Amino acid sequence: VVPFVGYLSFGPLPALLFLVGHLSGFILWLALPTRAPFLKIKFLYWLTFGLFFLHRVEEKVSGFFARLSEITGKPIPEIASFPIILLLVVSVGAWLIGPYLYSRGSTFGKYLVWTFFASMGITELAHFIIPIFTPEPYGYFPGMLSVIPLAPVAWFSMWRLTQQNAP
């Protein structure tokens, strides 16, 4: 659902990026055992979520959506448009309900947590790849700085998901 709504909102490039995060989370969830009880990853989950919030602030302040619009040729959607509201409800809603479901032993909750960490640790790296495809010399791309702490915390969190007795 998220890649489709992302396509409606922002066009094919962002939809592909959303797909990478969700598909990576799905593959990792299937391929790797989720051993850690939620209490062992709770702090990391909310730390990652907080870093994601700061990342979104950086994207807003630095003009990420304007740059994305220049690259894709698709106008910036209105914040109150149905696709944007649906995108927020589906993606952020899933990431807010994931910890609750995970803590209750839900397999779907574990999938949502994997998807969140994969999106933060893999998809957000696109901030370092997108500048390669712009006509300007490689340099800062809006949102890039906050990915520096965000991605490693997400990677570590994915590792922690597989550890049963991690501190």
Write the layout of secondary structure elements.
Blueprint: H1 2-10, H2 12-31, H3 38-62, H4 64-72, H5 82-103, H6 107-121, H7 126-129, H8 144-161
Helix pairs in contact: 1-2, 1-5, 2-6, 3-8, 5-6, 6-8
* Average predicted local confidence, pLDDT: 91
Element pattern in H and E: HHHHHHHH
Total count of strands: 0
Major sheet size, sense and barrel closure: none
How would you describe the shape? Answer: globular
The amount of helix comes to over 70%
The gyration radius over C-alpha positions equals 16 Å
Uncertain ranges: none
Structural class: mainly alpha
Helical stretch tally:
8
- How large a portion of the residues is in β-strands, by DSSP E? under 5%
CA distance, first residue to last residue:
35 Å
What descriptive keywords fit this protein?
single chain; 167 residues; mainly alpha; 8 helices; globular
Write a concise synopsis of the structure shown.
By secondary structure, the protein is mainly α. Helices cover 73% and strands 0% of the residues.
Plain-language structure description:
This protein has 167 residues and is mostly helical. It is built from eight helices and no strands. α1 packs antiparallel against α2, α1 packs antiparallel against α5 and α5 (82-103) crosses α6 (107-121). The longest helix is centred in the N-terminal third of the chain and has 25 residues, at 38-62. The chain is globular. The N and C termini lie far apart (35 Å).
